Amino acid sequence: MPELSVSMGVRKINDEASAIDIKGDLTAACEDVLMDAYAQATGDRTRALVLNFNQLEYMNSGGIGLLVTLLVRANRQKQRLLAVGLNDHYQQIFQLTRLDEAMDLHDDEGEALTGAGIAT
Amino acid sequence: MARASLWQRTTACRILIRDEKERPLITEFEVPSEVGNERLIMDRVAEAIAGAITGEPLERLKTAVAEAAMNAIEHGNKGRADVPVFVQVLDSDGSIRVRITDRGGGGTDADPEIPNLEAKLAGLQDPRGWGLYLIKNMVDEMHVSNDGDLHTIELVVRSEGANR
To answer: What's the predicted TM-score (pTM) here?
Structure first.
């Protein structure tokens, strides 16, 4: 297997929201890393999770599949996924796959949290 | 004259060589079928067509090439590093054509289940399965062909400045 070229930093914003900073390539090979990050980011009171794509270098269909899996888990926990920092190309892919309807897209984290009704 | 590749020396590859004479060839190369090499193929294709397509159309073609290459590596050639993926890039009638060939027959399926996000979120479809949908929507034309044990997907994007 090739070496993973991704890192995911988890930041707790407050009791209701956390962020995952995705750096590098989001592919099917990232499943364990992404799900571990989700587990770290999630607490009993977590209502929103910000996925920060500012340092995303590449995402393929496998990565999109992982985001769908993450959405399923978040929906079960009644959590909202918020996406920030996607470039124009990946915004188009989110529109094509309709991921933009399932997770709100924003330019920055503050706007995303405000849109989700979470005080920062 | 450049040394013929392993695939060009096989009779099974005659159809590719015949087409090479009919259309201006920009580049061709082989890459071992190792997971992750779809990025290498994507970058080499982008480098080969520099200037002919730029900006978002280039990003769309790169995504399509990477997805098609991943299918060829993982499904067509079953990840066997000794079985290469063969790539041709041609300039044809104002279009760029990228052909990605594997030897499996299990590569890109021309007509798979259409992915539906609601169905996936409801557990009625696999969360994966976006590859071909992306490919079809990233290029102007997509053609899939089988010739013996060779399976080829051709991606077509009109070059900048070509009549639309």
So the answer is: 0.88
> What's the domain count of chain B?
1
Interface contact flag, B127 A93, Cβ < 8 Å: no
A66 to chain B, any CB pair closer than 8 A? The answer is: yes
Q: Does B131 reach chain A within 8 Å, measured CB to CB?
A: yes
Q: Is A35 on the interface with B (CB under 8 A)?
A: no
Check CB contact under 8 Å for A61 and B131.
yes
User: What class has domain A6-109?
Assistant: alpha beta
For chain B (164 residues), the mean pLDDT of every run of 10, in chain order, is 45 46 84 95 96 94 98 94 96 93 71 88 94 96 91 92 51
Report ipTM (2 d.p.): 0.90
| DSSP 8-state symbol, B136 | H
Other C-beta atoms closer than 10 Å to the C-beta of A114 total 13
CATH code (residue B53): 3.30.565.10
CA neighbor of B63 nearest in space, from B83, B87, B82, B46: B46
Task: Return the residue matching tokens 């978002």.
Answer: B56
